[in-house]
Amino acid sequence: MIKEFGIRLATLLIVATVWCPAASYALSMTTAAYYIPSTYTTSAKANTNVGGFYGFFGQDQHALEIGFDQITLASTGAAVQHNYLGIYTYYMPTSAYKIGYLRINTPTDFANMVLVGGEWDTYNSYGYKDWSAGLDVYTSFYNLTTGRPLLIQGTPSYTKHFQAFDLPGSFEFNPKLNIEYNLGQRRFYNNAELAMKYYMNPAWTFGVRYWTGESVYGVSNGGFVVNNTDDVVKQGYAINATYAITPQLSTVLSYQSNTMSNSAILGDFSQNKISYMLMYNW
């Protein structure tokens, strides 16, 4: 099976939130570098470090996102997994449509994932974005020593945008569902997520997420996070903060904790991650 320490690509949804143009067609380019140490509360799991690069390149109605990262063992520094990501998005005035591909390589196994998605926006009479509805669909093909599971996942979401009348900035309220079907097991896994973002203009953005349910081999954060193991992710939370040092340079710090289980490990265990990221908008 794909190694248990290869559990994510990157926590980069906030990059898309900060920089991706929804209705503006000017040239946009953002690059980011990140480092993510991950630790477990059980010795049966290997602590890892993730280092990688992300790029967003937009022109007119077209955008390309690319990402690459490497997962290494914290104990030895040996590279154990490489991840590749590419997403193309076509923007329209009140909607956007995307298609993407993810590849995961380890010394013995690999996985291919295809994603398609869309988002549709409405605006109020004052010209502010009122709400957004989205749907992402993932098809994941695994080549493991124990078999070749095929998974289908659908993620409908809804985002309500509103102004903070007594505070500087604006809020986003984002409930989301994940519905996964493992064709090999002939079993559904479902979980729900609730997220809130606060844009404290002009320099700060704060976010918090909470999710509960069950997920196995699940994909999240628009395709940037992959749990490519048979660990069952039961619930968790994440908090993050973005600070714009200059109009071009931003830094992101986030913390995430997952409660997980595995049939080979007695009792639940936790996985904790800290993400450090530096972004530059060209």
Provide an overview of this structure.
- There is one protein chain.
- With 282 residues, this protein is mainly β.
- Helix content is 2%, strand content 68%.
- It has one helix and 16 strands.
- The strands form two sheets. Strands 1-2-3-4-5-6-7-8-9-10-11-14-15-16 form a 14-stranded antiparallel beta barrel.
- Strand 8 and strand 9 form a beta hairpin.
- The radius of gyration is 18 Å and the shape is globular.
- 34% of the residues are buried.
Furnish the topology, listing elements before pairings.
Elements lengths: L12 H7 L8 E13 L7 E12 L2 E12 L5 E14 L2 E11 L4 E14 L5 E15 L6 E14 L6 E13 L4 E14 L3 E12 L3 E2 L4 E2 L5 E13 L4 E14 L2 E17 L1
Antiparallel strand pairs: 1-2, 1-16, 2-3, 3-4, 4-5, 5-6, 6-7, 7-8, 8-9, 9-10, 10-11, 11-14, 12-13, 14-15, 15-16
Shape: globular
Run of helices and strands: HEEEEEEEEEEEEEEEE
Query: Beta-strand level of the residues, as a percent range?
Result: over 45%
Mean pLDDT across every amino acid position = 90
Helix count, per DSSP? 1
- Helical content band: under 10%
Label the structural class: mainly beta
**Sheet having the most strands:** 14 strands, antiparallel, barrel
The unreliable regions are 1-24
Question: Termini, distance in Å?
Answer: 40 Å
- The radius of gyration computed from the alpha-carbon positions, rounded to a whole number of angstroms, is 18 Å
DSSP summary, beta strand count: 16
In which order are the strands of the major sheet placed?
Answer: 1-2-3-4-5-6-7-8-9-10-11-14-15-16
